[in-house]
Design a protein that fits this description.
Blueprint lengths: L3 E4 L5 E4 L6 E3 L2 E3 L10 E3 L5 E5 L3 H5 L11 H11 L6 E5 L5 H7 L4 E6 L2 H13 L5 E5 L11 E6 L8 H7 E11 L2 H12 L4 E7 L6 E4 L2 E4 L9 E7 L1
Parallel strand pairs: 7-8, 7-10, 8-9, 10-11
Antiparallel strand pairs: 1-2, 1-6, 3-4, 5-6, 11-15, 12-15, 13-14
The chain binds S-adenosyl-L-homocysteine.
S-adenosyl-L-homocysteine (SAH) binds next to helix 3 and strand 8.
Length: 242
């Protein structure tokens, strides 16, 4: 189904899921005839001008179904930049959860496989992968603590209660120089994971970081950090297979 994004000059976005009918919003409505436009501007019946375009990946991503808590985009961006994944990368992610991380990775990588132990979350992540049109992402109903089928991987990402249970399996599945990245909301989890890596000879520990994003208000001379921000999401620990 064709969809559109409408955007105000202040950056407020509206996702029009179905362009076959008029779209009603706080500024009146945009007629279905105008919604056929793929670029430029449209006017509501009350005269408000809005930008119109086809949704990008990140516009669609904001509309995904939510099951378990998803990884924030600031953390996803950091994982991608640190590991340098790209169009030739083969990746494994677990647990898939809502599919936020594995879908984002699949938008950049060659092939992504994700494991999810719970069937209800498997269905949510599969729904999201289809909604985003990702053909290079396979989501399996599997317990990663039991092992990893895939071999020669460039990156394994973990968002799990006990990531240290995966280190041995990851060692067999990663290629030399491949990355193992674990995301944990609490320090005891990050600590136990880092110590599990440090005990071994087949991994090098790179670093543990948290990413803090502070948004600013930019309006005339009212230029200052916004009063509200997300205080904490999670810790990211990076290791490399030797
Ligand atoms: N990173 C995901 C969210 C993951 S939430 C996102 O961005 O959307 C953690 C998920 O791990 C949950 O869905 C949970 O069911 C799953 N999980 C927990 N233990 C697991 C295991 N042993 N194998 C596979 N998945 C597991």
């Amino acid at each position: 189904m064709a969809s559109r994004i409408l955007i105000t000059r202040e950056g407020k976005r509206y996702f029009v899921k179905d362009i076959s009918k008029d779209y009603h919003m706080e500024y009146g409505f945009i007629s279905k005839v105008d919604l056929k436009k793929k670029q430029g501007q449209v006017k509501t019946n009350t005269g408000t001008e809005l930008g119109i375009f086809e949704p990008s990946f990140s516009d669609l991503y904001r509309k995904i179904k939510r099951g378990p808590q998803i990884i924030a985009r600031k953390d996803i961006g950091f994982i991608m930049a640190e590991t340098g994944i790209g169009k030739n990368s083969v990746i494994l992610d677990s647990g898939a959860g809502s599919g936020a991380l594995c879908c984002y990775l699949a938008n950049y990588a060659k092939k992504v496989t994700a494991y999810e132990i719970r069937e209800d979350f498997l269905n949510i992540s599969k729904y999201n992968a289809e909604f985003l049109g990702l053909k290079n992402l396979t989501i399996k109903n599997k317990d990663i603590y039991q092992g990893i089928d895939e071999k020669n991987l460039d990156l394994i990402t973990l968002d799990l209660p006990e990531p240290w249970n995966v280190v041995e399996h990851a060692s067999k599945a990663l290629k030399s120089g491949g990355y193992l990245v674990s995301y944990s909301p609490t320090i005891p989890q990050a600590m136990d994971f880092a110590n599990a890596i440090l005990e071994r000879k087949d991994f090098a520990i790179i670093k543990t970081s948290e990413v803090i994003e502070r948004e600013w208000e930019m309006e005339g001379r009212k230029v200052r950090p916004k009063s509200r921000m997300i205080g904490h999401t999670g810790f990211l620990t990076f290791a490399r297979k030797i």
